[in-house]
Amino acid sequence: MSAQPLRIGIHDISFATAHQVLDLSELAEHQGIDVNKYYVGIGQSEMSMPAADEDIVTMGAEAAGRIIDRHGAEGIRTLLFATESGIDQSKSAGVFVHGLLGMGENCRVVELKQACYSATAALQFALGIVARDPREKVLVIAADVARYALDSSGEPTQGAAAVAFLVTADPALVEIEPVTGLHTDDIHDFWRPNHLSTALVDGKYSLAAYLRSLEGAWTEYQARGGVAFDDIDRFCYHQPFTKMAVKAHDRLNTIAGSGLDRDARRAQIAASLDINRRTGNSYTASIYAGLLSLLNDDEADLEGSRIGFFSYGSGSVSEFFTGVVQPGYRALLRRDEDAALLDSRVAIGYARYRSLHEAVDEVRGEDVVTARETTGPFRFAGITDQMRRYERTR
Ligand code: HMG
What we know:
Blueprint: E1 8-17, E2 20-23, H1 24-31, H2 36-42, E3 46-48, H3 56-71, E4 76-82, H4 93-100, E5 108-112, H5 118-132, E6 137-146, E7 159-169, E8 174-184, E9 190-191, E10 200-201, H6 203-223, E11 234-237, H7 242-256, H8 262-267, H9 274-279, H10 286-295, E12 306-313, E13 317-325, H11 335-343, E14 346-347, H12 350-359, E15 368-369, E16 378-384, E17 387-392
Parallel strand pairs: 2-14, 4-5, 4-6, 11-12
Antiparallel strand pairs: 1-7, 1-8, 2-3, 6-7, 8-13, 9-10, 12-13, 15-16, 16-17
Helix pairs in contact: 3-4, 6-7
Bound molecules: 3-hydroxy-3-methylglutaryl-coenzyme A.
3-hydroxy-3-methylglutaryl-coenzyme A (HMG) is lined by residues 34, 36-37, 40-42, 84, 115-116, 153-154, 156-157, 189-190, 201, 203-204, 206-207, 210, 238, 240-241, 244, 281, 283, 312-314.
């Protein structure tokens, strides 16, 4: 009798975002344009805006803290921190989180970067670690602050969030299937040189590059024996703005020749858009915020449903893969907590947003004590002797 194949995937997932929020009507009013360009045209209503004492470490620790509170840190021997908003060129943001959460010292901690794709690289690396030894548990944290220059066309697509997930054998939430399709292309659609705190982007070109990469990854996924389009129930895309997922899904339907009408196509992705519509782009966290949003949909029973994932990171690297939602997954969700995180953010106006945006460039490494602003459980307390200091607030 042959042994059952090892099932590996996402055992738990949790989310955090910055504790202030700008409604895009504030931005539209400042620009003197119709807000429906944002609410409808790009499908974004709000963007999370970090206070001066919030960053990828505070959001990442908050998201991961919920996983540790539930499962404990014991047995987590790898922490992968995916981000393109790094706070140090050498030390991983994950090591700060490891310290804040009091995790055990027998742990490897590393940071990964490839624009918005890196959390998917972390997931694939985690699957490999668990495949080699099924006792392993890997904590993945994806966290980013999406920043474009003030008054640029990318400005309404900023945002901030973190998603943490635990990868184990016999996962309770989503088993990740082995076939994947990959695509890499050396391009400049979006990038951030070391001397800039905001990204540069060729907006329209980046949309075309995303769609071309989707076709490339899907084609390889099919060639490697991936399931047919019709055998995938829901889809979850990287969402720089939610309309991008709508465009991508329409394109995939065309490539696959699905014959689905507009309503059927929208139904396959609608629930995955809710969180991102309110946080804005969170770069590498965005597709996993999409997964959480999809799982949190209380109108759908997704047990046994197959989800198709398309992860895209500018520059560019992408991957198409699938996962199957596990029986009993609903018992593990934190719907009310997730809704409260979004609803309890402090609304700020345009002037406050602008001063917070400008303040990022004022942090240059001199000693600084950061004013207490966040309502979250962790904060960036300031810099002493060129070292960043973080603390728990409760
Ligand atoms: P834009 O030029 O300001 O906007 O830039 P637009 O004129 O193209 O309008 C946007 C949409 O709003 C259009 O709809 C308009 O028709 C509509 P579409 O034709 O695309 O369906 N519109 C309206 N709708 C209703 N009522 C109105 C109205 N007015 C206009 N009154 C752009 C838009 C997205 C290019 C810009 O915001 C940008 O550059 N964003 C940043 C780049 C980006 O997000 N690229 C996505 C692909 S690359 C990627 O995903 C990777 C990334 O996440 C980074 C990483 O990997 O790390 C970015």
